[in-house]
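Here is one chain, start to finish.
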Amino acid sequence: MEKPDTLPKHFMEKVAHYGESKVAIRQKDLGIWQEYTWQDSCEQVRNLTLGLVALGLERGDKISIVGDNDRQYIWADLAIMAAGGVTVGIFTDANPSEMEYVIVHSESRFAFAKDQEQCDKHLEIKENIPNIQKVIYWEPRGMWNYDDPWLISYDEVSRLGVQLHEQQPHLFDELVAKGAGDDLANLCYTSGTTGLPKGAMLTHDIFLSAVETFHLLEPRQDTDNVLSFTPLAWIAEHTLAVTPHVMYGVIVNFPEAPETIQQNIREIAPDFLFYPSRLWENLTAIIQVRINDSAWINRFLYKLFLPIGYKVADLRYEKKPASPWLTFLYWLGEFFVFRPLRGQLGLTKIRTAITAGASLSPDMLRFFRALGINLKQVYSSTETAAAGTQHRDDDVKFASVGTPLPNIEFKISTDGEILVGGKNIFTGYYKNEEATALSLSVDEKGTRWFHTGDAGYIDDDGHLIYLDRVKDMITLSSGDKYSPQYLEGRLKFSPYIQHAMAIGAEDKEYVTTLINIDFDNVGRWAEKKGITYTTFLDLSQKQEVYRLIQEDVERVNSSLPPGARIRKFVLMHKEFDADEAEMTRTRKLRRGLLAERYQEIIDAMYDGREECKVSAVVRYRDGRTSSIETMVHIASLESEENPA
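Its structure:
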């Protein structure tokens, strides 16, 4: 039998194999886990595919989808590809102008929008997206009074599909059979940290190749459960959840709501878990705060056994055996602390946990492995279909991002840039030949190479050491170099720091930092200390809070060479905000904009001032705005040249 070469063909193979005998998808609704077999999924995908065809969808058409992780999203995704279309994911928190750019640039002809909120965004920009023929919504709540014929329900499209199936019962199978591995499957738009988002073109072959490389290292089974909650508009969720679902029969579970994710993880106890690095950082903060708030005996046991966990993790890192006595102590820690803690997090059955996105700090990776969580770093990108490097079970280096996955090649250019080659490399950026030429090359063997723009090197053991973006490696006027992203990652290990942006340039003698406190965690700390406050601004400028954060900054400084240490920092008066374009939708800092917007604060840190006057715009929920003016303090830390 010929091997399936598209995702819909793999899906239909699983339907033929499992039918009604096995659960394919679960979703929690109104407190109950609803189960859907492979046959249930097949009927949904078939009806939706034919409904789209009845509306006029043709092969090669682009269809955008915006919505939370739901069963309807994955069914729509598969239906689009089954009809020969191309999926274009949009993040749920995209504002109307961001949504408009992706829809217009991708030339989408139809749009899926989950609910009233997303439909309202489409209606707001309706005049600017005339290429969209229908907006299809799958959550009817709040939509009863909408009478715009431009909007159509998911169920109505499915009914059109049922009618077409009755007329042409073989059409769906024929459409699936027409698909080919080199057909475009997905236009995945990059986060746009340095400009407008670019649409990476990814074929079925690319997705299948990427998942096969992961499978060689981390075999997936049809009994595995995953909880799908990271945005489906992000490439990682397609590679680590959707494609393994259709290729290997992995059961995909969808949470009841974004607010119930942690509870749903405890209920499902997944075998495989993917968290972006920011969520691992949040989880660290949650653990530390809960321990601090727990009974004295729990705090005592945690402080007693965590160093034991670190020792065992370090020995595994050094590939050395633990002594019988240390093994016994770790067993006690596992019984009293580590296993109960993993149970609270829903990680009792976890075989492999993955972190990707921004690089996770070595401190954090070491922390989770000390708790007995098999956490591994992955280095990848949209353009590599989320496949690149990964740690092995028996070969973890805390400062590295692992070794290349099977069938993937890495090399370092003469200027220190990381290049990735293999069958999983994208075919180019949609309607952007200039960016494609800069980022993609093909060697004499026909291997596609992606020029990542990242700086790094491969060590003697074959591990990739990621430093930072090539353009972001900074040389100070002293000649010392530092990596802002590495430094920021170490700072975010603190439960009290939400975001940090390191600053330094060729005309600067030392490093400074803008820091966002974690309002919830610092607020709880302040309440326990009897420190009163009213707002984020008020709390951030408390001298006690400055002293609290300074301890963490000094901890980071202690592990850095003198020239790369932070000499001054400011606790920002407001949070960095994606709605103000200060971060991307994947929560990466837009450094250029932040440096320009807060130039006055940055200048103050370098010209000797102890405080700086700033103004900020406050936006209320009713749309009103007002301005406030305040003073922010500038904290100075000791240095070899200028002791405190």
